[in-house]
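Predict the 3D structure for this chain.
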Amino acid sequence: MQQRQPKVLIADDASAVHGLIRDALPSEYSANTIHAFDGVECLQALDHGVDLAFIDVHMPTMGGMDALWAARIAGNKTFVTLISGRSNKRCIDLARQLDAYEFLMKPFGRKEIETILATYRRISTPMQVLLVDDSAVSLKVMRKVLANSVFHLNIEEAHSGAETVRRCNSEAFDVVFLDVNMPGLNGFATLGHLMQANPQAKVVMISGEYNAREREALALGAAATMRKPFFPTEIDAVLHRICGLQSPKLATEGFVRDFGIKIHGRTIAVEHSESGHVCEYVWFRDPPYLRLPLVRENESATIPVAEIVANAKKAAMLELENASLLQAS
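Done. Predicted structure below.
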C-alpha cells in the first residue's frame, strides 16, 4: 500500500517565503501543500488538519502565534516551525510553550528547511525503544520522561541484563536505554553481549552518578551516555545526535545562551557568562567527543562550578553539532 504523503502548511504573507519553502520540499509533497497568507487562513488550515507547518509570527488579521495558540487549545498536535524577521526572549519562550519544534529567523535558506524536514521524517516514524533498569521506580520515572520526547517512542521494558540480551536477540529495537548498575549481568557486560550480536545497535548507557567509565562504555560501542535524572530535552538532544540529526536551537537556547563558546582548532572553550567559570575540552569527531576536560574557576564567583559543568558540556556538544563538526552516526 502506498504511504500517505504528509500535508504541509506554509503560512506567511510574503510570496518569496512560500517559494523558498515550497522549492525545498520533496516533489511528492507538492500535491498536499496548503498556502495561507494571513492568520485566519492559517488557523483554518490547522483546524482542517495538517502534519507539518511553517508559520510566520507576523501576519495580517491574526498573528501566527495567536493562530497556533488557538489550534493548540483545540488539541492540535501539528509539527510546527515558527518563522519571523525579529524576535525577543518573550517570543522565544512563547514558542516553547506552544510546543513549536523550531524558530527560524529570516532570512533563512534551503538548508535550514531541509534540516527540519529530515527531523520530521525521522520523528514521524515510531521508534522501538527498550528501557532497561532493575528498579521499578526508576523505570516508571524514565518512561514518563521518554514519553515527553518530541520523537514518537514505543517503549518496552526489561528488568535485567539477561532479559535484555534475550529480548534483543529476538526483537528489533531502534534504541536501548541501558542502566549501568544492575545485579547479575551489569550494564557493561550486557553492552558487550549486545555489541557482539549487533555492532550497529544504538545503546545509550545511563547511570545515577558521574561515572569514570564513560569512555569505556563508548569504547565498547555505546552510542551515548546519560546521567540520571535527565529531562525530555536531554533525551531529544541524544536522539538527534545518534540519528544523525541537528538539534533545534529553540529547544536548547535556554541554557546555551548562558555561555560564551569559542572553538580554537581542537579546543572548545565554554565560559559561563555570569560566573566567569570556564570549561575547556579537546574535541574529536568521533566518541568520546569531548576529552581532557579542564575547568578554570573564578574564585570570586557566587555560583558553584559544580552547578555549571554539566550544562557547559551540553552547550559544547550542541555547538559542535550545529557547526557540523561531529561524525554522523
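The CA atoms of residues 156 and 251 lie 26 Å apart.
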